[in-house]
Design goal:
About 35% of the residues lie in helices and about 30% in strands. With about 290 residues, it is of the alpha+beta class. The protein has 2 domains: about 5-235, Hsp33 domain (3-Layer(bab) Sandwich); about 240-285, HSP33 redox switch-like (CBS domain Like). The longest helix is centred in the first third of the chain and has 17 residues, at about 35-55.
Length: about 290
Amino acid sequence: MEDYIIKATAGDGTIRAVAATTANMVKESQNIHGLSPLATVALGRTMTAAVMMSTTLKGEKDTITVQIKGDGPIGGIVVVSDSQANVKGYVHRPLVYLPLNSNGKFDVAGAIGKGYLNVIKDMGLKEPYIGYVDLVSGEIAEDIAYYYAYSEQVPTVTSLGVLTNASDIVANAGGFILQLMPGADEETITFIENKINSIPSVTGMLSEGKTPEDILNMILSEKDLKILDKIPCRYMCNCSRERMESGIISLGKEEIMKIIKEDHGAEVQCHFCNKKYRFSEEELLSLIG
């Protein structure tokens, strides 16, 4: 199945909903970074959340960055998505292995540990919007929901999942985000809570062949669900030699001269796609000329 996101509303506009299937982008990240199954699940959940969150971006150059930093063995997670639903990400330590948790699932919370979550929205303004919350569980879905409730005052339900097969290859991945808009009454809130408690997991529904449309229908068909848009999403890094040059220039003349003296050149590697860019001594000198 192709990776895509569905945007929808329900309950006369009092419910905003997005759902996504993201197995291909998660597989791509696993291949690029050589991730352990546990790291694949952690990064996959975060990328799925970020690409769904990016559907609220308006400007062509707008981006949303989700950063998770904890004291667990994975160290941290960084994911960036743009307004065209292109997403990229990495974990600080890609080869993390832990025993399964008490539910027999990958111990994402144990890998992340205690820490915080940042959401940075760069919408072309003088300063980006930065929201910061402490992690409430480290399972990522609950932390994203808490971020929305605490930082943006939007009651939110988030569900994220990545399922791997016996060969540790991604079998499916996806998620949904439901948000209550102004005007939502107590009956709507109770309805959502009851529905969420009665449906299978996201990976369970995807394993049954359910699409993002099916998933939202299962939850919201009784609330006059209206599908608004279908958006392809993909793993894509937009690094370039020019961006790497800007990064080197930002080090300052003194640091660049030190690199020239000690190393007679530089090799810069992109965190998101692992592509390497080589700069000769002459090229470094031209950057500070």
